[in-house]
Write a structure and sequence with these properties.
By secondary structure, this protein is of the alpha/beta class. Helices cover 57% and strands 8% of the residues. α9 (232-258) runs antiparallel to α10 (280-309) and α9 (232-258) crosses α11. This is YhgE/Pip-like protein.
Length: 445
Amino acid sequence: MHPATRRGVLAWTVVASPIEPTVPAPEQRRAGALLRRPKLWLVPTVLAALVALLLSLLYMGGIIDPNGNLHHLPVAVVDADTGAPLPGQRENVGAQVAAAVVAGSPAGSVRWRQVGQAEAQDLLASGKVYGALLIPADFTASIAALTTGHATVRPTITVLTNPGVGSLGSSIAAQIDQGAAHQASLSIGRELDSAPATAAADPTARLLLADPVAVVTQVGHPIGQHSGLGLSAFYYALLLVLSAFITGNLVHNGVDSALGYADTEIGPWHQRKPTVPIGRTQTLVLKMAMTAGILVLTTTMVMVACVAALGMDAPHIPLLWIFSYCACLAVGLGVQAINAAFGTIGQLVSMFVFIALALPSSGATVPLEATPAFYRFLGAFEPMRQLSAGVRSILYFDARADAGLARAWLMIAVGFVVALAFGFLMTRYYDRKGLKRLVPQPPPS
């Protein structure tokens, strides 16, 4: 048969017999055979195990024992008692209680701030204390009246909470204040029981005198009803970080696919575009510029969802948007810098920097003063701590600079500079070394 005819018959045979079994090409492999290759398992197994171990240690290590890790939790104590000392005593009862409260706490656990009533209110309004213990002006007079049988008002100590610093932190401070007030009441009761004036009191009166002080809990600095019990600031800051993190990685992957440095695969559809010759530094410029532009929309969507759609309490909306965008921009540029420096594993590295290490050290759910020293160290520079403090100041504390907003702006500027410096130093170094991402393609055969 003529060669052309034979080729035509061969072509016809291939097309007309699709149901015949096809012999696998030598380079094709079955999954079963590949599963028996130990090297194929090594990298994902080790990385997955290490990530699971580290995440578990980081997250659980920060919350497992808040009371046992208390370290200088700031709480105010106010002695407003103006009564004269009782007979035989040099100080009035309020001064004695305040001194006993400060001395009775375990060493290093609570940092009591003995201040006046106005200063205590200012500390609560700026989030600098987690709560306050208030001894009223008539405290000594009320105690003295108990021994006369003419008492009309039971002595009261007020515990002031601060939900704006977070529900757990405010709760821990309230428990400390309530415990201290109860111990003070029992101490006063023992003194009253031994006083000659109470010897003839009836059993009911003596029962009252054994624990004479009422402890009342009030909100020291109220926040809005749509504030998630003081957690809306944390979750809003978390949304900012996650949005910037995801946006940065989407831009990173999208640009690499568009420039031909990565494959695009959606379901069964696969595409590899022609590689565009471009240096690492110029690629980073492109990615950072796109991140900055897209984050304008991302930040707006976060605010629309939280404030407009869900009704989150949010005063100072223009300031909140500007702060949110700058915060997202610092995180987004940081993601691009890390990806440019570390390549494929950059997304894992940035996940640890901006999420895994940042969440437990944010101090927004568990106070940093109730976490181990490692988390307090991370909280000095991890972005989530700075951003949540800034958002908290805007949402709960009237955007006061001393409530964490000034430090948040400073750390955003620092993060912005570090991201640019680190990213461009690394890419310029790679470019100068000739470490191009462009892989020469073999000519078609």
